[in-house]
Amino acid sequence: MFFPGKAKDIGLVPWCTFTDPELAHAGLTAAEAIERHGESKVEISRADLSHSDRARAEGTDEGRIVLVAAGGKIVGAHVLAPAAGELIHELALAIRQGLKVRELGDMTHVYPTIATSVNVVGAEAAYEYAQRFGWLVRREKRAA
Known about the structure:
The protein is an alpha+beta fold. About 30% of the residues lie in helices and about 20% in strands.
């Protein structure tokens, strides 16, 4: 109101549908990201809750976290999980801050929580990124 044109992007409003499991979303869908940035620049990262120790322990392992990145930065997030409405805030902040998917692997999450799956997506992206530099490592042959 006092500083016209200085407001943050209000298009980044997370939402949640309180079903069982909950469905939460922030940012762009994959289709919107492709339309805006081009198919060659969009990457989709996924983590199924079947790999979450907490979700398996609670018998709620049907669900998924999906991240949409364009040009390496997260532009959208979708969560189908128990307490998805609680998880989406971290991902909305990642979108707002222009984080890369692999940067989500840098943050330590409480274990075991469903939010650890966010960390897993980031760690997998960091591993894939590191593989690009494998040619820099000199390997010595071992005698059998």
